[in-house]
Every structure is written in structure tokens, then in C-alpha cells.
Amino acid sequence: MGDKYEITPEVIARAEAMWEQERIKDLTLGGLFSGGLYSLMSAYEDHKTHIERYRYLVTQDLDTPEAITVRQNEVKGVICGIPGVFGGMHWPNKKLQAILDYAEYWPAHPEIPQMILDDIAPGQEEGYRNGFTIRNLVARTPSKDGVPGLGYKCASMWFRMVGYDYLVPFDRHAQWFLHSLGHTDIRMMDFETQSGYTKKEYLDYEMRFAGEAEKRGFTPALFQLIAWVMYAGWHGGESMKVLKTAPSDYRPQRDG
């Protein structure tokens, strides 16, 4: 892989730091909604843009289903751009609609987050055992209903943030890493002009990636973050400050 992509203790530490920052501390309906929104907004975005816009929604109290539904024009500004503040996100109209649909879907389908809460409930002997089943139910594809805005990659990211360490948000970084490990038959995607893998491809690549992780003694989810920090070159910096002081309600602390 070359020195640039060597899995060093420093790389592992950065991946673990990112895991901790994105972990949902408030495992309630509100915390799960925020985590899903955060994951949805990551689609097709670089990390800086993703964090910047999510943080803006939070500081403007636009991170609940009710606020998003009532203040749609403000949400539109964050996603599609605010002159003098920041430009639009990638595929802004599509992303805006996904956020609005997600906010509408959430209160109408309490069974989805409740399934997660039931699966991770303290005292459950088999807690965190049903991640694949629930994730596959959540993930939306062109041929299958699910939670708006959450395809397999974003749904897996959401579940990883909840604590399911065996699910893989298979993004471009995981793709490049898996290819470098000898899986040269995978279909390479740019995730900008193309919308993602088919369900069959995603589940196949996720299983392969998990196998590579297990060979090296890592959980699949941490291994994906290792790939991410290596290929994205993430060291923390300003983006780390966004979530590192997040209290239990998953909101960054505000000045003053």
C-alpha cells in the first residue's frame, strides 16, 4: 500500500477518535433522529462541508422533525446555499427533499427507532444482535421502501454511530482500500456522478471488507474508519472541535 496508507498506531488512534466523536451518546428517539440526520447529510459530501452544514442546523435549532417541517425555507438555505455564508451542498435539491421527507417520516414511523432501542436495551443478552436485519429494513433503494435519505451506506453509518461495530458504511475510502487489498474485481464508483452500489453489490463488498478487518483483528466498522482517516487524511483540526464537546443530547456546546 505504500507508507501513506500504512496502518500505524497513530492512524488507529485517529480512527478511534473519529468513532468516539460520531458516537451517539443520547440513545433516545431525539438522539437517534439527530444521528440519522447527520448520516443523511454526509452523502456525496466532503467532511468539512458536511460538518459545517450539520453544525449550522444544530446551532439554529433546526435538528428536530418539527423544526425542519415548520422552517423549511431556512433548511433550504443551509442545504442550497446562503449568499455570503456558504454555497450549496452536493445535489442540493435532492438532499433537501431527502431531509424534508426524513423529518416527515420520523414521527409517522416510531417503530423504526423503537426497534433499534429495543435491540440495544441494557440487560439484553443478545443486544446489538439484530443490526443487519434492522439496517436492511431501514436502507432505502430504488426498488425498496425504507427511511428517506438513508441508503445502505448512510444507514450503516447511522448504525455504526449507535454502536453496531460490525456494519460497514462502505464509502469511496473503503472502496479504494478494499481494491488495494486485492479485490480488484469490485466496481469502482466516484459517488458524485453515480448514486451508489446495488443492494447485491453493497452486501457483497461489505462482507469482503468485514473479512479483511477480521484478518487484521479489527471490527469492520473501525476498519472502515481506518480506511477513511488514511485516504481522507483526517487529523482532527477544526472539524474535530465540532463534536468533541458534544453533551449527551448530541448537540455541540454553544458559545456563552
Account of the 3D structure:
The protein is 57% helix and 0% strand. With 256 residues, the protein is an all-alpha fold. It has one domain (3-243). The chain is globular, with a radius of gyration of 18 Å. The termini are far apart. Residues 237-256 have low confidence and may be disordered.
N-C termini distance: 46 Å
Give the overall form. globular
Radius of gyration: 18 Å
Count of discrete domains: 1
Helix content: 55-70%
**Weakly predicted, low-confidence segments:** 237-256
Written as H for each helix and E for each strand, in order along the chain, the element string is HHHHHHHHHHHHH
What is the overall number of helices? 13
Mean pLDDT across residues = 86
Sheet-strand content, in percent, reads under 5%
Task: Let me know the largest β-sheet.
Answer: none
Structural class: mainly alpha
Tally of DSSP β-strands: 0
Give a short summary of the structure.
The chain has 256 residues and is mostly helical. It is 57% helix and 0% strand.
What would the keywords be for this entry?
256 residues, mainly alpha, 0% strand, globular
List strands and helices in order, with pairings:
Blueprint: H1 9-22, H2 29-41, H3 47-59, H4 65-70, H5 72-80, H6 92-108, H7 111-119, H8 131-138, H9 152-162, H10 172-180, H11 199-215, H12 220-232, H13 237-243
Helix pairs in contact: 1-12, 2-6, 2-9, 5-6, 8-9, 10-12, 11-12
